[in-house]
Amino acid sequence: MKTYKEFENKKVLVLGLAKSGESAARVLNQLGAIVTVNDGKPFDENPAAQDLLTEGIKVITGSHPLELLDEDFALMVKNPGIPYENPMVARAIARKIPVITEVELAYLISESPIVGITGTNGKTTTTTLIADIFNAAHKTAKLSGNIGFPASDVASKSTADETLIMELSSFQLMGIQAFHPTIAVITNLFSAHLDYHGSQENYEAAKWRIQENMTADDFLVLNFNQEKLRQKADQTQATVIGFSTTEKIANGAYVSDGQIYFADEKIMAVADLSLPGDHNVENALAAICVAKLSDISNQAIISVLTTFSGVKHRLQYLGEKSSIKFYNDSKATNILATQKALSGFDNTHLWLLAGGLDRGNGFDELAPDVEGLKGMIVFGETAPKLKDLAEKLGISVFASKDVATAAALAFEKADASDVVLLSPANASWDQYKTFEQRGDLFIAAFENLKEN
């Protein structure tokens, strides 16, 4: 960790705990700041606040008293999920107290260079691929950020000969000031988080902030399959490297005649990628760009891209039983995510497991993607809607009470060489606390099938 003295003896308010807030509070305390933590969860139900208190950090829990801001705070570090319209945040801004997110703090203290990855879809897979490729090349990389490892905690323990591979959400990027990756990636831009940002324009502007402090010595990797990102290539000081599955990119990664190239150098065949789906070809191209810009060998790239089994709950390959392959895509909490998952498989040999929380929407837009499926197993609140869709399309469909019984039923119905895919197209909250819990139960059901 860098010796950073700007926070010494200055009052800093950490608003909201969770992993990032807890990490920020500890790092700031270590840097000599006078830290106050404010979290809405009551103290008796708040183990993180209890731990911080024993470490000598002031904690205020159970509410967010506006009068707290009457203190002379030099900085607020807010949880990324807290909107800027929040009364505490709004008052801090009105009083000209700088408001940052924890990734800015991570940048300020990091001795390691940062590779930052953002975008609507594919962030986690691309981030993980890049880290795995670095490590395969014996260049130590550490995952950090929105992927589940608080950036400031990882940065505080990193060294100059390591690289932080940092997944960044739009929420986190809204709270940066000096943040400066040496390489940045924008995987794609689709409609998302409009309830937080208010408009697609605001959402995309938040994502674009990843490059705002970059210079010509830095590299910005953009998805040239999207015209909106291609058009942004001349709106940055960074050196732009494109990737595309449809055309040659002179200084980037692309697909031609079933082969993946970087510039004019052939890397590998598309057919050798371990992850299915056109979207995962894009993720691989983005990872290849970062790897080649970092002087990593093709051998290391190929070793990862041919064996990578997916991020947990994100089109994760679990294995097979009786020549039936199982994939866990519990992270697919909306129709678009399921459409992307389905694009990587042959429907005539695919059993789709779908269903979950009913948010009032229909599923007609999924029809072209599920047409020709061998079968569907549906569960949860939306099971009747999905069953209606399948019956309209002449797809064999069966109802099940949950993902565990759905896995068993799919195995019973499937034949050798079929694929069983959990890709729910719905949130999990009707039956499960999180999509992770839903996916874990599916994994457990598969493991049980393997053992019997």
In terms of topology, how is this protein built?
Layout: E1 11-15, H1 18-30, E2 34-39, H2 47-54, E3 58-61, E4 75-78, H3 87-94, E5 99-100, H4 102-109, E6 114-118, H5 123-136, E7 141-145, H6 151-156, E8 163-167, H7 170-173, E9 183-186, H8 194-197, H9 200-208, E10 219-223, H10 227-230, E11 239-244, E12 253-256, E13 259-262, E14 265-269, H11 278-293, H12 298-305, E15 316-321, E16 324-328, H13 335-342, E17 350-354, H14 367-370, E18 375-378, H15 383-392, E19 397-399, H16 403-413, E20 419-422, H17 435-451
Parallel strand pairs: 1-2, 1-4, 2-3, 4-5, 6-8, 6-9, 7-8, 9-10, 10-11, 11-12, 16-20, 17-18, 17-20, 18-19
Antiparallel strand pairs: 12-13, 13-14, 15-16
Helix pairs in contact: 5-11, 5-12, 16-17
Pfam families: Mur_ligase_C, Mur_ligase_M, MurD-like_N
GO cellular component, one term: cytoplasm
Binding site for ATP: 119-125
Short précis:
This protein has 452 residues and is an alpha/beta fold. Helices cover 34% and strands 20% of the residues. The protein has helices at 18-30, 47-54, 87-94, 102-109, 123-136, 151-156, 170-173, 194-197, 200-208, 227-230, 278-293, 298-305, 335-342, 367-370, 383-392, 403-413, 435-451, and strands at residues 11-15, 34-39, 58-61, 75-78, 99-100, 114-118, 141-145, 163-167, 183-186, 219-223, 239-244, 253-256, 259-262, 265-269, 316-321, 324-328, 350-354, 375-378, 397-399, 419-422.
Strand content: 15-25%
User: Termini distance?
Assistant: 50 Å
**The CATH top-level class label of the largest domain:** Alpha Beta
- The general outline is globular
Q: Would you give an account of this structure?
A:
This protein is an alpha/beta fold and 452 residues long. The chain folds into 3 domains: 11-100, Rossmann fold (3-Layer(aba) Sandwich), CATH 3.40.50.720; 103-305, UDP-N-acetylmuramoyl-L-alanine:D-glutamate ligase; 316-451, Alpha-Beta Complex (Protein-Tyrosine Phosphatase, Chain A), CATH 3.90.190.20. Helix content is 34%, strand content 20%. The chain is built from 17 helices and 20 strands. Strands 7-8-6-9-10-11-12-13-14 form a 9-stranded mixed beta sheet. The chain has a 6-stranded mixed beta sheet with strand order 15-16-20-17-18-19, sandwiched between helices. A hairpin with a 2-residue loop joins strand 15 (316-321) and strand 16 (324-328). Helix 5 (123-136) crosses helix 11 (278-293), helix 5 (123-136) packs across helix 12 (298-305) and helix 16 (403-413) packs across helix 17. The longest helix is centred in the last third of the chain and has 17 residues, at 435-451. The protein is globular, with a radius of gyration of 23 Å. The mean pLDDT is 96. It comes from Pseudolactococcus insecticola.
